[in-house]
Design a protein that fits this description.
Layout: E1 3-12, E2 22-30, E3 34-39, H1 45-52, E4 60-65, E5 68-69, H2 75-85, E6 86-90, H3 101-111, H4 116-129, H5 145-157, E7 163-167, H6 175-192, E8 195-199, H7 203-206, E9 211-216, E10 219-221
Parallel strand pairs: 3-8, 3-9, 6-7, 7-8
Antiparallel strand pairs: 1-2, 1-4, 4-5, 9-10
Helix pairs in contact: 3-4, 3-5, 4-5, 5-6
The chain binds adenosine-5'-triphosphate and magnesium ion.
């Protein structure tokens, strides 16, 4: 299978820290793969996602995604790259309280100036995939945590980005809601062929992934 992401020997030193948060990390991710990232607290998982998603830069090493060397992008280019190529799911959902669920899921497409009719049909399709079609006209505060997280996942996927990053997406969910989210994520991963990198502490969540990368003190092993 074609590789979509190449991580070559990246190291990340934060200022005034005795040891690097990432220490010569290398791995490849295939297109369509659902990759799990595990490791103790402080082992470098969030730092890795920040560096891969151009929010932060590695101190050394290079990262290429579909032949773009992302650590070389300017700030404006990186912002454009994130807007077009990446989707994000966080532990805290980060839905906008003053927008309905439909409007929240639409935001990434609105920012890309997609026509309203296309937005409507894509939002409907994603809401179906995540089982929240009856929640679309409600505000986030009227939904359960699990429904809010599925809305956040639908928002991450609505523009069909080649890569989706999820940092502890089940961290705030009860086990039934976690199962619903993980099932919908792995189904949309298969159906849309999107590539997902998911950080998790939970072996049950990790069991939904194709492969796991373990981090210890900033180093990785498969
Ligand atoms: N902005 C920062 N400035 C300085 N040090 C940082 C910063 N962010 C993280 N670190 C340090 O880098 C190391 C890796 O942190 P990171 O947040 O990547 O860990 P993590 O694996 O995501 O942990 P957790 O499971 O608790 O979320 C830790 O030692 C942390 O203290
Ligand atoms: Mg973290």
């Amino acid at each position: 299978m074609k590789s979509i992401l190449h991580v070559n020997n990246i190291t990340k030193h934060y200022p005034n820290q005795p040891s690097p948060a990432l220490d010569h990390v290398s791995f490849h991710v295939s297109q369509g793969e659902f990759l799990g990232i595990m490791g103790a607290s402080g082992s470098g998982k969030t730092t890795l996602l920040n560096v891969l998603s151009t929010i932060d830069k590695p101190t050394e090493g290079d990262i290429s995604m579909e032949n773009i060397q992302i650590q070389k992008l300017s700030q404006a280019e990186a912002a454009d790259f994130r807007k077009k190529q990446l989707g994000f799911i966080f532990q805290e959902y980060f839905l906008l309280d003053s927008l309905t669920i439909r409007e929240n899921i639409s935001v990434p497409l609105t920012l890309l100036h997609v026509p309203a009719g296309r937005i409507r049909s894509r939002v409907n399709a994603l809401a179906n995939a995540f089982g929240i079609e009856s929640q679309l006209d409600k505000y986030p505060s009227k939904l359960s945590g699990g429904q809010q997280q599925r809305a956040a996942a639908a928002r991450a996927m609505v523009k069909m980005p080649p890569l989706i990053f999820a940092d502890e997406p089940t961290g705030a969910l009860d086990s039934a809601s976690a199962t619903e989210l993980l099932t919908a994520l792995s189904e949309t991963n298969r159906n849309l062929g999107s590539t997902i990198l998911m950080v998790t502490h939970d072996p049950y969540a990790a069991s939904y992934t194709d492969r796991i990368l373990y981090f210890k003190d900033g180093s990785s092993r498969s």
